[in-house]
Specification:
The structure holds 3 protein chains of 3 kinds. By secondary structure, chain A is α+β, with helices and mostly antiparallel strands. Chain A is built from 7 helices and 4 strands. Chain A folds into 2 domains: about 70 residues, 3-Layer(aba) Sandwich (Glutaredoxin); about 110 residues, Up-down Bundle (Glutathione S-transferase Yfyf (Class Pi), Chain A, domain 2), CATH 1.20.1050. In chain A, a hairpin with a 2-residue loop joins strand 3 and strand 4. In chain A, helix 1 packs across helix 6, helix 4 runs antiparallel to helix 5 and helix 5 crosses helix 7. Chain A is globular. By secondary structure, chain B is of the alpha+beta class. In chain B, the strands form 4 sheets. In chain B, strands 8, 9, 10, 11, 12, 13, 14 and 15 form an 8-stranded antiparallel β-sheet that branches. A 4-stranded antiparallel β-sheet of chain B has the order 2-3-4-5, with no helix packed on it. Chain C is built from 1 helix and 15 strands. Chain C is elongated, with a radius of gyration of 19 Å. Chain C starts with 5 loop residues before the first strand and ends with a helix. Classes of the chains: A alpha+beta, B alpha+beta, C mainly beta. Chains in contact: A-B, A-C, B-C. Chains A and B meet through helix 4 of A and helix 4 of B. The structure holds FE2/S2 (inorganic) cluster (FES) and fe (ii) ion. FE2/S2 (inorganic) cluster binds next to loops of chain C.
Chain lengths: ~210, ~280, ~200
């Protein structure tokens, strides 16, 4: 499987993270998204007419939406979030929610970091609305003794939402106001096989303090 | 008031290859400027008129006052066989001087660039040499050694890497590191920092490498990965301005380059982005 | 007059081994809980290069700065500088500690050496914290200044409520909510969401 990838993209990271957690090996092709804008070039458009990253290629299959890639990678595993109608519908709800996160918090980040044009006040406001919605949900999940968005274990719903949320401070949106969201991000970062991306630090505490050398 | 010393320096304002007729509207030392191509020539204008401009190392440099000296040189930029890589811009909410100081620092590698440029337990920073080379008026650190799990894109496995650091201008720094592909040569990595205001900057990393193999996109990705790991640190140092009051922070022997850099800034009056006394 | 003790969240939101950001009248703080459960609040600034300690990490009974890994013990003293593993850090290198205590599931901070007790909320249990962007906080059925208390009908039940207010900035208030035993916490949480919408709509109107 080949992932057309960009190191600073939250959407590409979603797929890298999912693959790492599943132990699936991906071959990476780096796309010069910034400053080269290679994803807008003719060669890349031949692969993905939408001119977006990531793109996942497996034989004849070409996927251009990151949530579809999560489904493809996680199919048949517990990461799908359970097979009841309720669980499946809830997972789908969070996958759609992840797109809202990208359009708000993700856009604020592109604006603050890579100088994209955006109505920064509006995208930050939308981002805060998303974080509040998530916090309210996770507060109730914690009352029920759970920490994941859907069900008793981590699922593609969590992986779809995690990058934009964790990177919110890159776009000038603090996570200080959302204690349950913060504990949820810790739960994601504590998963076996977790990998970081620039802007997301690993939990150094998961490794014991080194002996003095 | 911005001092003559600050106004007389050269600052990066754009990646030359990306400047078109429409150009880029941006800030330099708090002043609005425009960088654009006019009949093939790059111009930088402010309300008061044209700024002195020079094009070098893939970037456009402007001087808002009367240039005190010519732009510094990086001789390696002209070495045949080196690949010159422009890495694009990244905006950071921090003092431009803090961005440079972070670039001079190796002690953070194990914690911020974990498993790439450093890793616990290999955290020790041994003594190295630092001096201000008076003949060129630049800060230099040499014989810097540090254990790195993955020193460069072309490096496999951990090695002790040697570095030299150089500050040729208040908001630019150049580092030389052992080149895994070409023993005896140095890879050159620089950051050029555009001071938008005292607390906001655009950072333009740039490289001159011996590497014919790695695709351009991967070289850029590696450099952006490293710099973006630093960004969340830089945006969370308090105060935002670089303190020049020695009582404000606690340097150790590992920080001798930063101590020299701060002293050099103070001596030359290059205090845009600095805080003189504790607030 | 500046209030000495300021509520900074709920104990349930700061488990062992976690550090978070806090504030005392505009002063940024790092509040953390060690592996054994000891809580501490410090100025949110590492002595070395000014990095926020709230971005750090907790290992056992220590808090480490994320930038260069300086290790601070619960007393605030720096015990280890990773760049110089053989060096005993000078005693002047220490985090600036605030007083920090917990009562009835609420975390309170005050300047070091502050005398006097934190407010009593006996009989109430922590629910959740949320931030409200509105000029003032008034809730029907509740009275008080910095702690609103009283009984409210929520989902057909009378619930004893306590809202502890923490002013974050002009027009920004953190509300740390508690309710009486037997209260339906999910219903209370939804009631709080509704209260916030009303308060913020009031500002917009
Ligand atoms: S700033 Fe905290 S260890 Fe350097
Ligand atoms: Fe760094």
């Amino acid at each position: 499987m080949i992932l057309y990838d960009y190191v600073l993209s939250a959407s590409c990271y979603k797929v890298r993270l999912m693959a790492a957690l599943l132990g699936v090996r991906l071959d990476h092709v780096a796309v010069d998204f910034h400053p080269g804008r290679e994803h807008r070039g003719l060669a890349f458009r031949a692969l993905n007419p939408a001119g977006t990253i990531p793109v996942l290629v497996d034989g004849d299959l070409v996927l251009t939406e990151s949530t579809a890639m999560l489904v493809y990678l996680a199919h048949g595993t517990a990461w799908m979030g359970g097979d009841t109608a309720v669980a499946q519908a809830q997972v789908q709800g969070w996958l759609a929610f992840a797109a809202r996160l990208g359009a708000s918090l993700g856009m604020a980040r592109l604006h603050d970091m890579l100088l994209y044009a955006a109505d920064i006040a509006a995208v930050r406001r939308d981002g805060v609305a998303c974080l509040r919605q998530m916090e309210a949900h996770l507060v109730e999940r914690r009352f029920a003794g759970a920490i994941w968005l859907v069900g008793d274990g981590p699922s593609i719903a969590d992986i779809a939402c995690f990058p934009s949320v964790m990177l919110a401070p890159d776009g000038g949106v603090s996570l200080d106001d959302y204690p349950s969201v913060r504990l949820w991000t810790r739960a994601v970062r504590s998963l076996a096989g977790f990998i970081e991306m620039p802007g997301i630090h690993r939990l150094h505490e998961l490794k014991p303090a080194p002996e003095a050398v | 008031m911005i001092s003559q010393a600050v106004l007389g320096e050269w600052y990066p304002v754009a990646m030359a290859a990306l400047v078109d007729a429409a150009g880029r509207r941006t800030l330099l030392l708090g002043q609005e400027i425009r960088v654009f191509r006019d009949a093939g020539r790059i111009r930088v204008t402010a309300d008061a008129g044209d700024l002195a401009v020079t094009e070098r190392f893939g970037h456009v440099w402007a001087c808002p006052g009367t240039p005190a000296r010519a732009l510094f040189t990086i001789p390696e930029a002209d070495h045949p066989g080196r690949r010159l890589v422009d890495c694009g811009v990244v905006r950071v909410k921090c003092s431009p001087l803090r961005a440079v100081e972070n670039f001079l620092d190796i002690a953070h590698f194990p914690f911020v660039h974990t498993d790439i440029l450093g890793a616990e337990p290999h955290t020790e920073v041994n003594r190295y040499d630092v001096k201000i080379r008076e003949e060129v008026d630049e800060v230099w650190a040499t014989k810097v050694h540090f254990y790195q799990p993955q020193a460069a894109k072309s490096a496999e496995g951990g090695i002790v890497t040697e570095y030299m650091y150089r500050v040729p201008a208040p908001t630019a720094s150049v580092l030389y590191k052992t080149c895994p592909a070409m023993p005896g040569e140095w890879d050159v990595i620089a950051i050029f920092v555009q001071p938008l205001t005292e607390e906001l900057c655009d950072v333009w990393p740039w490289m001159a490498l011996y590497d014919d193999v790695t695709p351009q996109a991967e070289l850029i990705a590696f450099q952006q990965m490293i710099f973006l790991q630093d960004r969340s640190i830089l945006e969370n140092q308090i105060p935002r301005l670089l303190p020049l009051d020695p009582g404000m922070e606690s340097p150790t022997q590992a920080d001798l380059t930063s101590v020299a850099y701060r002293r050099w800034l103070k001596r030359r009056g290059l205090t845009y982005g600095a805080q003189m006394v504790a607030a | 007059m500046t209030r000495a003790w300021v509520a900074n969240g709920l104990s349930r939101d700061l488990p062992a081994g976690v550090v978070m950001h806090g504030a005392w009248h505009g002063q940024d703080l790092a509040i953390w809980r060690s592996a054994s459960g000891q809580i501490a609040a410090w100025k949110d600034r590492c002595q070395h290069r000014g990095m926020r300690l709230s971005h750090g990490f907790v290992r056992g009974e220590t808090l480490s700065c994320i930038y260069h890994g300086w290790v601070y013990g619960t007393s605030g003293a720096c015990g280890r500088i990773p760049a110089h593993p053989g060096l005993v850090p000078p005693s002047a290198i220490r985090a600036e500690a605030f007083a920090c205590c917990e009562k009835d599931g609420v975390i309170w901070v005050a300047p070091a050496g502050t005398e006097g007790d934190v407010p009593d909320l006996a009989g109430l249990h922590p629910v959740r914290s949320l931030t409200v962007e509105a000029a003032g906080i008034e809730a029907p059925g509740l009275t008080g200044m910095e702690i609103l208390q009283g009984s409210v009908m929520i989902a057909g039940q009378t619930v004893a409520l306590g809202l502890v207010l923490q002013s974050l900035a002009a027009g920004r208030t953190a509300v740390h909510a508690l309710c009486g035993g037997g209260g339906d916490v999910v219903a209370v949480s939804r009631w709080l969401e509704d209260l916030r919408r009303r308060l913020e709509r009031g500002v917009a109107a």
